[in-house]
Design a protein that fits this description.
alpha+beta; three-stranded antiparallel β-sheet; 6 strands; about 15% strand
Length: about 170
């Protein structure tokens, strides 16, 4: 086993994972604007979604053969686990119910039991709702900025245009 020396992924080496991370980083920038973007790190032929200091918390990924939605599911799940464990906070959080959301195919019911070959459609951040129920699809992955309430949405748009704090788009 080689010494632990992860390296930042070379641009262009993992195009599907890079594209998926760019999508996830839009949500990251919209909801955690003071955090630098997530990045891809490589160690022993595995790719990891890491926070800005290069640390991560999930199993390694491989570049998918040709299924872009699969890449998005892999990266979004890895990003959520890394943010939760390395930054010690739920992410992303539903702005209406103030609880963490989960990655799911669009339109799944509260009793959905996990991924299978029949799942299709866009990937969304899904909220279980409050104590009285009210589960809902919060937003497609990559579009959380649109789902934010008024003031938060305006601040997110301002940051996207370069008028506010935060960084986006870096891998």
């Amino acid at each position: 086993m080689e010494p632990f020396d992860p390296q930042r992924a070379e641009p262009g080496r993992y195009p599907r994972l890079e594209a998926a991370l760019a999508t996830v980083n839009r949500d990251f920038a919209a909801t955690l604007p003071d955090q630098p973007p997530l990045r891809l790190m490589v160690w022993e032929e595995q790719v990891y979604v890491a926070v800005s200091d290069g640390s991560w918390h999930h199993n390694g990924l491989q570049e998918p053969d040709d299924d872009a939605p699969d890449a998005l599911a892999l990266v979004a799940d890895a990003a959520q686990e890394t943010v939760t464990e390395r930054l010690w906070q739920a992410w992303p959080v539903c702005p209406f119910h103030k609880i963490g959301t989960h990655l799911r195919p669009e339109g799944t019911a509260v009793d959905w039991e996990g991924w299978n070959d029949g799942d299709s459609g866009r990937l969304v951040w899904w909220c279980r709702g409050g104590t009285a129920g009210g589960c809902h699809d919060l937003a497609p992955v990559g579009e959380l900025g649109v789902a934010l309430p008024g003031k938060e949405r305006r601040a997110s748009r301002s940051r996207e245009r370069g008028g506010g704090r935060g960084r986006a788009g870096e891998m």
